[in-house]
Design brief:
Blueprint lengths: L1 E4 L2 E4 L10 H5 L2 E9 L2 E2 L2 H14 L8 H19 L2 E9 L17 E8 L14 E7 L14 H12 L4 E5 L5 E4 L3 E6 L2 E4 L10 H13 L3 E3 L4 H5 L3 E6 L3 E8 L2 E2 L7 H13 L4
Parallel strand pairs: 7-8, 7-14, 11-12
Antiparallel strand pairs: 1-2, 1-6, 3-4, 3-5, 5-6, 8-9, 10-11, 10-13, 13-14, 14-15
Bound molecules: pyridoxal-5'-phosphate.
Pyridoxal-5'-phosphate (PLP) binds next to helix 5 and strand 13.
Length: 286
């Protein structure tokens, strides 16, 4: 496949960075993943806005020209479609760059490393609850850091939480804080439905402001379903009528079991089908 590295398009296997890159040594960088289907991107503007916010948060001085990046991302999609198929995720990464000093402080005068590559996404599922079996997730205390709103490349905490779900044969791990309040999942956001209303945890430093979360909130409005951003406790999660997790790769995944406990009747719910139908139609235009 064709990748992008520091201004050039190169075959992925020929892309080389310094082992002194602080992205490698410190996880000192920001990333994005933009999904695309049939060559069309989802949420490009929103992803670029979050990318810029992340760079500002960690003081990497790099300005993003949205039009240039749109062209770059579109090329990674178009040039890799023959190899990867119609469902492609584009990973974008800016790390602080290579520095010989092995010193924690942000170095002066280093050039950020800019990297992008394309990978195959799974095909979107049909918005039909009669054929979707629903997924199971693990449940764990959130043991990551207190800056989860930054889409940092330092993902070890997330990786360890995700690995628990792999060991338990589940699709993800939903996380709760010390107060037994749901934060998010290891690589996705969480929604619940209760008595016809939708709830999702409010944005703060405990969770990533997911782009899919943002798009789903717009779809809930289109569906006329009230949405409240509020604290959700573990007990409320387990007592929900429906649980969904959202991310660029998973879109809206309906959850029928959490930490070994069945949600509602253990079947995918009607609100998921209603909202995911809208999402599937609207995702390219939102
Ligand atoms: N939360 C975390 C920790 C994530 O890593 C991700 C995405 O990978 C999400 C939420 C969902 O964000 P998005 O919808 O922008 O993909």
């Amino acid at each position: 496949t064709i990748a992008y590295l520091n201004g050039e398009f190169v075959p992925l296997e020929q892309a080389r960075i310094s082992p002194l890159d602080r992205g490698f040594l410190f996880g000192d960088g920001i990333y994005e993943v933009i999904p695309s289907y049939q060559g069309k991107m989802v949420g490009f503007n929103q992803h670029m806005a979050r990318f810029a916010n992340g760079l500002a948060a960690i003081e990497i001085d790099f300005s993003i020209d949205k039009d240039e990046w749109r062209t770059l991302v579109q090329r990674l999609i178009d040039d890799n479609r023959e190899t990867l198929g119609d469902n492609i995720g584009v990973y974008l990464h800016i790390s602080r760059g290579a520095d010989t000093r092995r010193f924690h402080a942000y170095p002066e005068g280093v050039t950020p490393t800019v990297f992008g590559f394309a990978f195959a996404l799974s095909a979107p599922v049909k918005a039909d609850r009669s054929i979707h079996p629903g997924a199971s997730v693990s449940l764990a205390e959130d043991l990551r850091w207190e800056r989860c709103h930054i889409k940092s490349t330092a993902l070890l905490g997330n990786v360890m939480h995700f690995q628990q779900s792999v060991k338990e044969g589940n699709a993800e791990t939903i996380l709760y804080n010390h107060q037994h309040e749901i934060t998010e999942a290891s690589s996705s956001n969480v929604f619940i439905i209760k008595n016809g209303e939708a709830f999702t945890p409010p944005l703060d430093n405990q969770l990533l402001p997911g782009i899919t979360r943002m798009l789903v909130i717009e779809c809930l409005a289109m569906a006329g379903i009230p949405l409240t951003e509020k604290v959700i406790t573990v007990d409320e999660l387990l007592a929900a009528d429906e649980v969904w997790i959202t991310s660029s790769g998973k879109e809206m995944l309906p959850i029928v079991s959490v930490g070994g406990q069945q949600i509602s009747n253990g079947k995918v719910g009607p609100v998921w089908e209603q909202v995911f139908t809208i999402y599937s139609e609207q995702k390219f235009v939102l």
